[in-house]
């Protein structure tokens, strides 16, 4: 990987035209204002500031009020993750102190990644969401299988072609049916395309596949989908992301995701996300805080500051109570302790569990 609540009502601009029936229009405006205030009060949101008889807050195309949102939801911690297995192994071996340290990761609700078409992948999705439903918690899944994934970087791979990707996504959508889940969709995919790693034809196909994936996943009423939008130091001008995000179906998504597998601070991500949200008409976002406790590594000659950099730390624990109106959740999307790639210091290939690095993040 090379860099690494929900959209609410969008404010309508302009006043209601009064035409030849000024009193009727004013009356209609008053009805709309009252209706908006009542709806917002039922949702527990602040009433809009009314500056005139027709300055009404109305839901926009990305609003997802029917899905219940993330605020206050309890996230699911999968007891079968690599960190949990490491805890059990070290406890059996008598390494109780190190096992207790790794438990700081194992006990947290981290995302489960689905990144291939290995046998039974849809069954694994179904088992995960069923277990989470039984526990009364909300699972977080990361889908990472777009064709030409990572543009030949450390996490290269993905579906063989568009047809294979569509089949994969539809199988996952079917496995999610009847359950609730949070989906972080295709880390890096849009930012890499905006950066120019794909030709125009391939970029357009990628955007179309992402839009189709959002449509398929959102057919399940309880599924929230956050489309990855890079991080603050990658595409530094958020306006450059707009056309690609819109082509990729952001209007149907629950929002966008930031900082996946990266180390940028929570504050910097919130500032960037707020700017991007303003350009998108109020879209909400989630932030990956799994490894940003010490912020990013210093850039330097020969220093792959994004690939297993030393001296990093766990960030804010996963929560759906961020205190930031636009930030629906701080999530551990990248599983702390899994490698970014075989980029030195004895690191294993991308995605493999690396207990020594996990201990470093905890210390």
TrEMBL record:
Q: Where is the active site?
A: 188, 340
Tell me a Gene Ontology molecular-function term this record carries.
Answer: hydrolase activity, hydrolyzing O-glycosyl compounds
Gene Ontology terms: biological process:
cellulose catabolic process
**Superkingdom of the organism of origin:** Bacteria
Q: What is its EC number?
A: 3.2.1.-
- Tell me the organism: Couchioplanes caeruleus
* InterPro entries given in the database record: Beta_cellobiohydrolase (IPR016288), Beta_cellobiohydrolase_sf (IPR036434), Glyco_hydro_6_CS (IPR001524)
Segments passing through the bilayer: 20-42
User: What family does the entry list?
Assistant: Belongs to the glycosyl hydrolase family 6.
Q: Which Pfam families match?
A: Glyco_hydro_6 (PF01341)
Q: What is this protein called?
A: Glucanase
